[in-house]
Amino acid sequence: MSAARRCSPPRALAGLFVWHLKKTGIRQIPCQFVHLCHVANDRLITFQYFNFLKRMYVTQYNKDLSQRAKPKSDSIVSPFRELQQFDQEKKVIHKIRPVSPVHQPLSETSSRNELREIKSAAETADSVTPVKAESKDDRQWKEMKLRLDDLPGILARLSKIKLTALVVSTASAGFAMAPVPFDLTCFLLASLGTGLASCAANSINQFFEVPFDSNMNRTKNRPLVRGQISPLLAVCFAASCGVPGIALLTLGVNPLTGALGAFNIFLYTCCYTPMKRMSIANTWVGAVVGAIPPVMGWTAATGSLDAGALLLGGILYSWQFPHFNALSWGLREDYSRGGYCMMSVTHPALCRRVALRHCLALIGLSTVAPVLDITTWTFPVISLPINLYISYLGFRFYRDADRSSSRKLFFCSLWHLPMLLLVMFTCKKSFLEKEDKGDLLGGNHGRAMEIRLP
Question: Strand, coil or helix: what is 152?
């Protein structure tokens, strides 16, 4: 008893385990394990170390007790599917009707239904395989073939037909606001020449910006980016539009209008286009480009550059800042990805300030129109609500600086300009009134000269 009490618990456990092995008659114990047991009797070991030795023995010399990976089942059915199947079985049971002796046995009908399901599955598999093959073929690179039926639409997108229509409409407004009798032939020639010049400028712009447009979501589907036409064809189209357009404006209208058209093409392609990747001053240069078409319409009608032409150009100049700054605010990621230097990307606070300033400038320019004897005094009064509304949206854009306010300002600018020009045209002073006023001024001047004469 004294000897048992003196033994430590680890040694007692080891002794019991060795005595149990001798009693059972297991003589195939490895020599290494026996050696470890002798070492355990000589040295103090912990209970955790003893468990480790036991696990090593079990895993190395008794393979039946080693852990084995549980094979994974082929299909794991979710409980939701089981519930759905159970519900479907319930529904089928409710729909069963008593079988009449005329019908065939249930086994035959079920076998036929299975055959039909197998046939339908085979047919669907056959129909799906060519779709997958077609999708793989569509993803592969292949040469774009130009068809003559698609050429008008491609050239229309190359020339930015919507922007060209806006340019022609502003030039027509300048022609209509001129204080001269309306000449239909001159108007058609001026409109056609301005449209051709705009098509040429836009085509050259797309030719230069192909590597940058391919990085933008807004411009990645342009014809040159997608390879629908060759760059040579784009340049030839630009030349075939630019040369006849400038010739029409110079020879058919007057040299001043032709010079303005040529200068505008140069300013858009050689100044504005490269400056878009260099400085934010490109926005001001682009505003000058957009302000020239109404001046061209005025000079086409009058043959001179008057104060009325500058006023129309100023209205278009100021209108473009809220229009473009609001548009570029929602495309900041695209412009930065394409490598363009825009106010909305590099100077967002300046972008919002400039938009608000030019919204307010439209109110002042509308007030100057009757002072220059272009419109009556009803024009600033009637145009005040729409000018105040766009100024309010410009203030919201300046204050909130979010996409919602920028979108509202942009869409307002789309209808603001045509409505402002339409109100300006309705309040225009007629040519007869100006002639009468000129005659009255001339008559009063003659009477004053007669009174002064002895």
Answer: helix
